[in-house]
Design goal:
By secondary structure, the protein is an all-alpha fold. The chain has 16 helices and no strands. Helix content is 74%, strand content 0%. The two termini are 18 Å apart. It is a multi-pass membrane protein.
Amino acid sequence: NNIYETEGPRRLHPRPQKQPTTEEEEEEPLTTAEMNSRKSVIIRRIIAVSASFIFLIAAMQGLAVLQSSLNQEIGVWGLCANFAAVVISCLFFSTYLVQRLGCKWAMVLGMACMTTWMLANLYPSWGTIIPGSIIMGAGWAPLWTAQCTLFTISGVELAKLTKQMPDQIIARGFGFFFMAFMTGPIWGNLISSSILGQADAPSPPVNSSIIQHILICGAGFCPQVLKSLNSTAIQKPPQKLISILVGVYLGLASIAILIIVIFIPNIKAGDDPKNPNLKNTNGKAKFSLNLCAQTLKQLTNKLQLCMVPLNLYIGMEEGFMMVEYTMAFVTCSMGVSLIGYVVISYALTAAIISFTSGHMIRLIGRPPVFIFAFLSHIGCNIAWMFWQPDTGGTWIFFLFAAVWGIGDAIMQTQTNAFYGVLFSGSSEAAFSNYRMWEAFGIIFSLSYSSYLCISVKLYIMMSMLVIGMVGYFATEIIHRRQVKRDEEDATD
């Protein structure tokens, strides 16, 4: 991993054969004031991006978790179209757009695409939701690739200034970001619960007699039985309240865009000329098959291949919580009105763990933290196989959501940070791969959502989780051997 060759508190990989350049010889050491000023700029940049995503995710996630209730079949297929567009964008556009536009304007473009989808929800139909979802998906990949690239660059730069290990700084940076990111659904669901709660008739739970005689909630839940339910089992709120909700979400997304435009400089990979791991395109990137192939070429990296199963699982578990848990466990036994509050417990726990996971990595290392995430998710999957949800224990719905949030936060936060360490020299292509396979996971999860029973879905989830963890540990072993080999070569 080239990142260790130039960064850290000490030179792990000295290159005695390389003579310093004229620029390096002429560089004067920074004064304390200059160093503090640079650190302050980097930290403010990280805070600004994180704050922007709070507003954006509050709007986007708040509306996404309501799609199956507000728009039903159109909404679910819209989500599928969205993530299919994410895959195409990862392959052909995200790397090019980040290199061409820079991190700032790539994020602005991605956020603007999301507002298009929100606008489509004002007049939901096949002709508005599907195109709006495709546009959102097209902007999703460059948005995340730009954010991850920006944080990797900032982490490397901050590590250089503070004389710390880059992987620790990057992990803490992503931890702070995902703490802020995970609070977005909290505010989004509070807003939706407040606005939609004004409906004259709250959405009731599925008819109890049907549950007792036809429908089994939990692992025995099978979507096909929904066709036999009365169409009034889940009531849609009045269109006036939906329009107000979408208008509020559009306002939040607009604030997110303004934060990026006002407070973030347009940083490109390679803006630091003394960092050979980051390629500088100087805004002259051209769309070509070679450039598009960078994302696919990244798959020739054995470390990238080993991480693919875990990326797939992350997408699948997101889809499961967004669609399956809320319908088969919460709505089935308690009603739609509880969904927002359950999602809040999930998001709040995830926000806390996202922030603390970086410190946990520093104290006990990365593998034990990933094992903890594995245990939290495998434990939930096994428990769900045997748990029969009912209206007598509301607290357990929140408990399961919170425990699931622990594993989700660790995997998302620290997988991003791990990518920053593994692929610092090809960050755009690597993070595009991350989002592409994550999107594949969500598409896979949604594609069989209407056809398989929950018990079968749980077995699929557990299998992919185990395979993903095997791939992660293989990556750790290969990476550590490479670092050790580089250290031995450097000392010869």
